[in-house]
Amino acid sequence: MRRAPTILHLDMDAFFAAAEQAAKPSLRGKPVVVGGIGGRGVVSTASYEARVFGVRSAMPTAQARRLCPNAAYLAPRFHVYREISDKVMALLHELSPLVEPLSLDEAFVDLEAGGVADDARSARAVGEQLRRDILAVTGLTGSVGLAGAKMLAKIASEQAKPDGLVLIEPGTERELLAPMSVRTLPGVGPATAEALRKAGIHTVAETAEAGEAELVRLLGRAHGTGLYAMALGQDDRPVVAERDAKSISVEDTFEVDLTDRTRVRAEVMRLADRCVQRLRAAGRSGRTVVLKVRNYDFSTLTRSETQRGPTDDPAVVREAAGRLLEQIDTTGGVRLLGVGVSGLADFTQEDLFAQAATERAAEEAARLAEEAGAAAGAHGSGGTEAPEEAPERPRRWVPGLDVVHAEYGPGWVQGSGLGRVTVRFEQPWSEPGRVRTFPVDDPALSPGEPLPLVGGGPDAARAAEGTPGVPDGPAAADGDGAALPPISEGRAAPEGQAVPDGQAMPGGGVPAAVQSSGEPAIRPKSRSAEPAGAASVAEISSR
What we know:
- By secondary structure, this protein is an alpha+beta fold.
- The chain has helices at residues 15-23, 48-51, 61-67, 78-95, 111-114, 120-138, 150-160, 173-177, 190-198, 204-210, 212-219, 221-231, 261-281, 314-325, 349-376, 458-465; strands spanning 7-12, 32-35, 43-46, 72-74, 99-103, 106-110, 142-147, 165-167, 247-258, 284-295, 300-311, 334-346, 402-405, 409-417, 420-425, 434-439, 445-447.
- The model is unreliable at 348-359, 372-390 and 467-543 (pLDDT under 50).
- Strand 2 and strand 3 (43-46) form a beta hairpin.
- Among the domains are: 7-167, Alpha-Beta Plaits (2-Layer Sandwich), CATH 3.30.70.270; 173-232, Orthogonal Bundle (DNA polymerase, domain 1), CATH 1.10.150.20; 247-352, Dna Ligase, domain 1; 401-452.
- The longest helix is centred in the C-terminal third of the chain and has 28 residues, at 349-376.
- The protein has a five-stranded mixed β-sheet with strand order 5-6-1-7-8. Strands 16-15-14-13-17 form a five-stranded antiparallel β-sheet. Strands 9-12-10-11 form a four-stranded antiparallel β-sheet.
- 33% of the residues lie in helices and 21% in strands.
- It contains 16 helices and 17 strands.
């Protein structure tokens, strides 16, 4: 424990959802849920307005829709969140060389190591300036906790939410912790909490009063001893600048259970390739390939195979994943598949040779196939008749996607269905924009680049997109600017027609994405821990 509160914990407020609200004026002050939007999706982050209705992270999206049917349900834009995170982390590195990122939106900072604070007064000043800098650079808010230990700094940032700062003076730890739930302490999950509850232990004070010997009896020596120290407010863990990942993995949850073995294998091969891409992007290689299979009944099986040495060769990872799949019965139906690599190391010379060999082999195979096809011709000996060109599949417009229209400029997808896509045309600095609906294959509509949350403007948008601007000001807004729902079956609006906010969609029903009644934002203090799971790729958690 330090004598001064010079350990800072930053936690961005409802990060993913807040970024979407900042980018989309019509969603500000409205309930927003970011995560998997399919029937088997999982909530990554809920805005504070959505949390009022009981929506929480890790909750199935279907349950969230029942609790808050009028929320805007958006797919994650991880590239946007990473860009914002990089800016926030750069600000933290200006304060100290010891920055310990926990996720995209959360980190510890050792202010003492940076020489910017050595007492409560200077630490508070640094924390307040950091909050102002984050708002200026990103347009988003973050909560700051300051204390003499990491555990206490994190608890302080929780108390500061949303958009606040709490400093815990050294010497006041036990008094502060005493009434809190034992779940507040690091390492206390549902199983540990249940074991303590059965022993009549519910609060941190009761945990401390139980004594170390009793906790060791209940939980084992390592866990019991550590928990007793935490209950006394003792936490000597240092801020660690580098947190090496233990593994790299990707996984997908499927809308419909996969029962075809060939399809299951194809998905495993695809996931193996994606895993290797992430492995190489991180400059790593690994020894152990892991396969994860979640069955139709939610039972989860994992199998692993350790190689002779570290590798990032996609062929090696695919083959290992294929062998692991042979050990698992998937006939009942597969809900989720995942492929990972653990036992990570930096690139080895063998990895580089393997990568080059793989690339050369792929290039050679492609060249030979092309030469064979050219020599044989479309109908020549050894050739095959040129197949008719398959019709192009309609583009998939997921809610939240950035788009640009040749006539109306930049906007974002509110929803799609029945061959239609509904787009709201607005920018971070504009008034809430109008909504228009187009055919999904409209040639004038294409994916767009995200616009900056701060420092932009109409001229910047036109320069970035190369498209006409959208009128700013009240003339561009329709109604109160509340977001309309994703288009569901039987409720697509006429092509190219703007839909006023709050009106029923053609075909009956009331728009179900966001309430149009100007509901005031309610920002409760309580919040739950948020997970890494979205519907497709497992990503880092956000709050």
